[in-house]
Amino acid sequence: MAVASLTLLMCLLALASSFSPPGISRVSRRASSASVMFATSKWDNLIDEDEDDELTFEGGPPVPRDMKYNMFNIDRQRSNFESIKSIAGKELTNDVYARDADTDTFWFVGKIARVSDVPLEKAVSRQWPMIEEHSARLRPAELYPKWGSLQLWTAPGDSEMDVAYCKQELQFVRMARDVDGADEVRNVEVGWAGELYENDEEGFRTTRTDDGRADKPELQQKQKQPTDAEMDDLMEMLNSQVEANDLQ
Q1: DSSP letter at 144?
Q2: Which residue would you say has higher pLDDT here, 174 or 230?
């Protein structure tokens, strides 16, 4: 088994080393469309499926009325995200990852946006209840058991490809649930676009150190444009490697 795992890893590195970040790929395609592909029916399905699985979200500190996990609030914050990004670009957006502190796996759960007067820390804290519940609904097996104590981390906006390639200079930043002054931020000043899976996607995840740094060597890139099928194979192998690490 050790030889097989080593062979798989060598094949993965060889495949990854022949790629350069494409303009369109499985990761970047989902990332760039995450804020525009959220049909109401998909949110309804996510909520309905969780109700069927008897997931409950009770207890904990009071949740502001405008951040309760319902379609009205979800649609409003998604619309806010789109509006802010359309004006400010990705500079005022960040990717958000959720983590169970007992593991080294960080799950991509969506994107956040804010106006220039609102610090990132306040933007996350203000929308924390919605983001954390969405994370638990998105990954019920891995994250729901730790709902209420999940960690939220941020990365630069649209940086999934850099994360997949283990760029050493990219460090995730851990956010705090409670930030002074966050309750004074108006909901129109921040936005949230949660990740949704299509066609039984496995979801994008990465393993990192406790301080948010890549825990594997950077994958070298050459000037070659991979096809969508090649990128799908790469992401499948990356996910398989993460699963293998989780089982060790």
Answers
A1: G
A2: 174
Nearest 10 degrees: Cα torsion 141, 142, 147, 152: -150
pTM of the model: 0.74
Contact assessment for residue 218 and residue 167, using Cβ atoms and an 8 Å cutoff: yes
SS3 content of the chain, % helix, strand, coil (to 5): 45, 15, 40
From residue 161, alpha-carbon distances to 17, 23, 71 in Å are 13, 10, 30
* Integer Cα distance of 74 and 66 in angstroms: 9
DSSP 3-state of 248: coil
Name which of 192, 184, 181 is nearest 157 in CA terms: 192
Residues 108 and 138 sit within 8 Å (Cβ to Cβ): no
Mean pLDDT of the 55-66 span: 91
Contact between 84 and 113 (Cβ < 8 Å):
yes
Contact 236/201 with Cβ under 8 angstroms?
Answer: no
For position 246, what pLDDT does the model report? 66
